[in-house]
Amino acid sequence: SGKWARAMAILREFEEKCGTPSGKLRQVADAMTVEMHAGLASEGGSKLKMLISYVDNLPTGDEKGLFYALDLGGTNFRVLRVVLGGKDDRVVKKEFEEVSIPPHLMTGSSDALFDYIAEALAKFVAKEGEGLHPSPGQQRELGFTFSFPVRQTSIASGNLIKWTKGFSIEDTVGQDVVGELTKAMERVGLDMRVAALVNDTIGTLAGGRYCNQDVIAAVILGTGTNAAYVERAQAIPKWHGLLPKSGEMVINMEWGNFRSSHLPLTEYDQALDVESLNPGEQIFEKIISGMYLGEIVRRVLLRMAQEADFFGDVVPPKLEIPFILRTPHMSAMHHDTSSDLKVVGSKLKDILEISNTSLKMRKAIVNLCDIVATRGARLSAAGIVGIIKKLGRDTVRDGEKQKSVIALDGGLFEHYTKFRISMESTLKELLGEEVSESIVVEHSNDGSGIGAALLAASHSQYL
Ligand code: ADP
Ligand code: MG
């Protein structure tokens, strides 16, 4: 019928606008490299903040002792206790707990959020087992993974630039987040020193390097997206401090805020951005990361319902609710292998209260998930190629067999198989066969927690 044709026309037009042929991805990768240079040249020189992490030494394996880590990055936070045994024994013990953040705390007051975190941490510390206590008279030390843009002032201090990923707490912006946490720990009576403040990308890079000496960069694909890599200190014109002994400095790119005229943006992305908590910001993140992919699918489906009666005469009311369709739901529909696409059918029913969908409709919806996931995956690969180019590792120097390992983490990478496969094959497509052999993507499972603990260890007050 005419209505079906109209719905398919909406879908095909969206697909066309989402197109990411290799040529376009190369332009995106080149733009990423250009912005990296600009962000390193001067403060505010680029959409890419290229933040200096104050991490100029990555873990060696010699780290020893009991350390805590706290990972705050999205809807959950994790507390972690590790015992490091040095070169031979490595991670002797690792215990963790995950705590969810009540949504009202994500947009409330700074004190309320940090009190909640400090209380959960204090409870976790209280469960320290036999032989797991700090030496008498010593303070417990913590690596604080805080995955929002922070302008660091030292390894253990930094001011929040802005919230992202659905957090919006005005009184934290501009504050030292270590100070906020430390004050909250004092309020709940927990005696602990923050030894290192790191972004999750930095934590993942540190955790990755601990396991594999060839790790040179880390990328997070979770609720949000970001990347960090090891830069030559000499190549950071905006750094006016002493050159570190190692000659290196880890840079937190904050690549979620990347944007370029080469990005394939659609009217749906524009509307999502305008209606978001942070309009005009985090444009790369809004087309790639887990917080947004399901929402993009919802917006296209809503248009198909409104303008082409895709779900019948009435627009399903649930479909009008922002963020109701989450990326894990989208992923489940996308991976449905049953002949009648029954997972798609049941997701539509359970989440959107839409029943009686035909196989033809379900197929169109799987196609829509594929378009959105593929664009995100291919653009992530282009971003990684941008980093590889910046490091001059996009060509094989004759005879050299130096591996470049990228540590990847985050729920999207971990659980959205089709996304991960598309990202990895796009890397090969862009780098070519020969270079691809030297570039390895490695899943760094919860490297960021261990990484933060390792960095706390190497910045301990007792060294
Ligand atoms: P964060 O980024 O908040 O620190 P994670 O790295 O655990 O946390 O990522 C969580 C995100 O991963 C979720 O917001 C969701 O978008 C995505 N995710 C989780 N599970 C799945 C899944 N099964 N399929 C697709 N995406 C998923
Ligand atoms: Mg995380």
From TrEMBL:
UniProt entry keywords in alphabetical sequence: ATP-binding, Glycolysis, Kinase, Nucleotide-binding, Transferase
InterPro entries, sorted: ATPase_NBD, Hexokinase, Hexokinase_C, Hexokinase_N
UniProt enzyme class: transferase
Name used for this protein in its record: Phosphotransferase
Catalysed transformations (reactions): D-fructose + ATP = D-fructose 6-phosphate + ADP + H(+); a D-hexose + ATP = a D-hexose 6-phosphate + ADP + H(+)
Domain Hexokinase N-terminal: 11-210
Residue ranges occupied by any Hexokinase C-terminal domain in the UniProt entry: 217-457
Gene3D superfamilies: 3.30.420.40, 3.40.367.20
EC number: 2.7.1.-
Protein family membership: Belongs to the hexokinase family.
Domain of life: Eukaryota
UniProt pathway: Carbohydrate degradation; glycolysis; D-glyceraldehyde 3-phosphate and glycerone phosphate from D-glucose: step 1/4; Carbohydrate metabolism; hexose metabolism
